[in-house]
């Protein structure tokens, strides 16, 4: 099998392979717009995903297409990029090729690995089927299905105990994803769904947010994280800090010796870097991340860069956080260093510029830490909305999200309460799927 | 297991069970708004589907949530309705109960069966996996996946013949669904996708519409059906009438002795009524439909009504067509007859009022037959758009569809080019899914 990028001698231009079309990979490709290189951007999906709004897809507030854009379409005018749909299965650093499942190897002169992370279940991979996490659109649709099906099963349930287990949701992990899920889920249960059922009162829905550390949203200052906790509690969420999950069963979550009856559990705790990092043959940290050099290259391999959630970059002794801005800026710096190497210039070190930290807790409640300036409440919420609309890719997505949000805000209803693939996929146990 | 509707003696009000939340079932439930009955509306999905726009979901033009609305949400203020998510597996006409998979039986005093139809593969059920049809949102997502994946596979293909097989699409059936799919697919291939690929020219996409009868759109007058054919051919679709599929393989379709190399086949021919009809124990026609009485009740069972695609209703010697208007009006008449029976009044016969027939062929091309007034071209197209926006359920869906259409029309781009569940579901053969 032959393909243009598979014939090393044909192209005089250096080949840059980018693994992953997320914030890091896409921004790197775009930063190489005018560089004399042939770029191949490889992704497992056909779209770039605006991950900060993924929880809104998982909670039926936005349709998946509002927060995604086809990679081909974003890059259609950039003629030095070929987009390839496929999954990287390994990297051969000696022969400088990327192995792709079911496709020919991709040779590279420069490689940028921006493959992101999946969830870490802290040594309990068997929990994944019972407590799905939220990284991709397929994940979000699965969470949406389980969230909506739980109310259907509660309506159908034959006894009070069973009904209560279907109306109890446990969210593990008090970072932004866990907090945002909890805040929006309680609102949907108590407002949007209230009149829709005849046998259950969805206002009795119980949402428990479990955080192992001493406080939720540890990336924020103490005072804001306290505000967030108070807001969640006002909405009716039970916030429990300093508590670790010890066991997950189809109808219960254990915290130490306490058994919490719950049919539906979502996982928003802990990252494990893509297993691709292992094939680089360099030291990884506990979370599986690559400890990169200051220029974001891999030790011993100046031609390989790692950015985003897969990279461990220390700055003033602290790791750069695994957020969109870190990946975007990392991608841009790696691209600039590729350009410099080609031009024979000295590379620059990565300097992460922290623009601030935002989170939304629920209707009219948000928090913002803007380099020391703290906002909360309605002001924080509006700031969050504005920033997220602005950063979305494409006019259509912005217009559509604005429309969905405006209608949801005014009517309290949710636009995407659609259960697709009602029959659960193979291998999913009966966690939230089967009745009594 | 007990549930309110399972305890016959508790409710003094007659129990009406409606199977199916499509046009027929939903309209019947709504028409019984003020009737002194307890209604249970049973559907396999949680949503009402606006089927006339389903082909736009299948072609990445609209997100699924724009043409669906949760049944619970539509009926939330109608307190005499309980919505139940579940699949009817049989009807016991002697004991007057509906069997529901994995749930208790539903006893009824009146039963309305509006379970619709699936596709008929004319004695070749094995074709279904190779040539999916378009009846549900899950069907539409599967067609969207295959349609978009075909271009990805073509871009990856190693030889010209294989590439051409991925760029050839065969649509079987020249009714409205087949025509609308063909018209929109050729536009997307030739316009929206054109700049997105590097190795293939999507303008070379070949779309073949096969119709077994002498002309496409047989429900329209001769002249309009000829206009539609001409429009499709202008767009670049190959329209072949009087040709029947004799065999479907993973990479080819046979028409008689001719082998057409094509990796992707869609099925838009022939209906087979829901198998539920069989459990009524009354005569069915060849398509599996129930030959109902003039009042839409089942012969010998005045308490059971059948409406929509599942019913064969003759009017002036001709069957009422299986279109939305037929189901809507049928549902309303059946509801009225239930109300009359309860009030001791005489039943009315069903009178189908044909409001007209519309179809869209592609950008700026539509046809309309309004009780003898024929429109085509841009006028027909605008009429089609207006009518479909007006008939959509809910302000949000209308606003969102309008926005998506406006942007698609102005930019030629498609908003929902999202491939979900990239790994094909279990049991799907390698039709459009595997590379060389």
Automatic annotation (TrEMBL), chains A, B:
Residues 355-410 form the External alternative NADH-ubiquinone oxidoreductase-like C-terminal domain. It is an enzyme of class 1 (oxidoreductase). Keywords: FAD, Flavoprotein, NAD, Oxidoreductase, Transit peptide. GO terms for molecular function: NADH dehydrogenase (quinone) (non-electrogenic) activity. It holds the Pfam family Pyr_redox_2. Residues 15-331 form the FAD/NAD(P)-binding domain. Gene3D superfamilies: 3.50.50.100. SUPFAM superfamilies: FAD/NAD(P)-binding domain (SSF51905). Belongs to the NADH dehydrogenase family. It catalyses: a quinone + NADH + H(+) = a quinol + NAD(+). This is NADH:ubiquinone reductase (non-electrogenic). The gene is ndh. Its EC number is 1.6.5.9.
